[in-house]
Amino acid sequence: MGDGTSETKSSNQMWGGRFAQGPDAIMEEINASIGFDKKLFAQDIRGSIAHATMLAHQGIISAEDKDKIVHGLSTILSEIESGQFEFSRQLEDIHMNVEARLATLIGPAAGRLHTARSRNDQVALDFRLWVKEELQKTEKMLTALIAAFLDRAEEHAETVMPGFTHLQTAQPVTFGHHCMAYVEMFGRDRSRVRHAIEHMDESPIGAAALAGTGFPIDRHMTAKALGFREPTRNSIDTVSDRDFALEFLAIASICATHLSRLAEEIVIWSTPQFGFVRLSDAFSTGSSIMPQKKNPDAAELVRAKTGRINGSLIALLTVMKGLPLAYSKDMQEDKEQVFDSAESLELAIAAMTGMVRDMTIRADRMKAAAGSGYSTATDLADWLVREAGLPFRDAHHVTGRAVALAEQKGCELAELSLEELQAIHADITGKVFDVLTVEASVASRTSFGGTAPSEVKKQIAWWRGRN
Ligand code: ARG
Question: Are the C-beta atoms of residues 129 and 43 closer than 8 Å to each other?
């Protein structure tokens, strides 16, 4: 389509030998992938240099031809990087655009580059290299997001806020603990990224069209040159496989889902009604009509981008579903989904990292909310179990009556008098008031992984020790 590409009606110069006539304009349009796969130019050239070097090492092409090829490819790389390269839609894709230009630059030696390979293993290689690099970038970005949360958690290990279930006040927690929940989520995303890199760390080049080749190639040599652990083991699977792209999209979808939950919390927390956080000017927008407004647009857009990323996963799963082995042209539809998701995910992680670093935590508002809604009712029930020896179910019932009384009186649990509490259960003593404050409540929750500041600090130290 419209990307400065040229159109003619002669048969294709790369594969047109048996064709008397060129493709119909519609055929050319539906067939071409250059509009998007030109993004793979650096990987394509890197792969070709490794392939040509191996061919010469194995005596399959001459050292002289190899030198010409490598030199020509380096020239093409700088042409593309400096924006001088003219991409042609008639040449379909990045692979044939590069090869055709190589022929113009170095003549007949260019025709030797495609010995013992096919575009099927070539595209599998280029795309794998691209996805691997993207995963490495994602890993770094997640590390920055985790670091932002660790800093906020450290700063607010003692800051009390309401913990919610069903978005109803449940029990007091610390803001530091809440931050560490996100550290766990993004930490899992990061290990998924690391595992995916390990899964896909095999070189496809040399699988050729699908059956391997009769030329005495050395796939271990190309694998090593391209930074892969080893070559893939089955040539049919190699050209049929897009698991690495699916894994990327699955990881991106789960990560985006985590980001959307954070985005949603930021939207809620920044409302005047909650007022738990104040967004920085740098990460919010104003309204063109209502002067008082400060909108969490970045968070809303992160929430929305999740839809796009999840959609890409479903799109590629559906493309791959039911495809017979080995390569089918359907698989050309893999790239746009991955490119679009990668761009969206990078932006979403970067935006959330900025928002988390920049937002002001309103500890006073959090604390006031933490104490409302009978958030320490469980602490009263636990006290009755511990100090008065009641079975938990009975303690739950007694506490329920105390909550009902407080509700009827329009006061908090800690505002009931000792006499009122004793009228509900005779064994209650004045000591109970020690556990009814939000600070006492969080300080008591010292179980492994619990919300007590002492425990949260241990969690932070553990994460600081990893990378
Ligand atoms: N542009 C193609 C793709 O992205 C490259 C592989 C084409 N192979 C072929 N035999 N037509 O999948």
Answer: yes
Pairing of strands 160-165, 230-231: unpaired
Q: Of the residues 29, 44, 119, 330, which should be mutated to test ligand 1's pocket, given the most ligand atoms within 8 Å of the CB?
A: 119
**Ligand 1 center to residue 120 CA distance, Å?**
6
| Contact residues for 424 (Cβ-Cβ < 8 A; gap 6+) | 398, 401, 402, 405
The whole-angstrom separation of Cα 137 and Cα 146 is: 14
pLDDT in tens, 425-465: 999 999 999 888 899 999 999 999 999 999 999 999 999 99
- Which residue has a Cα nearest atom 1 of ligand 1? 93
Distance 373 CA to ligand 1 centre (A): 61
| Whole-number pLDDT of residue 9 | 55
How much is the average pLDDT of 96-103?
A: 98
Q: Of 287, 328, 372, 454, which one is the catalytic site residue? A: 287
Q: Is 97 in the pocket of ligand 1 (CB under 6 A)?
A: no
Does the Cβ of 240 fall within 6 Å of ligand 1?
Answer: no
287 catalytic per annotation: yes
Span 366-398, pLDDT tens digits? 999 998 888 889 999 999 999 999 999 999 999
**Atom 3 of ligand 1, nearest CA residue:** 332
- Report field, pTM of the whole predicted structure over 0.85: yes
Give mean pLDDT, residues 58-74. Answer: 98
Residue 166 annotated as catalytic: yes
pLDDT value at 45 more than 60 = yes
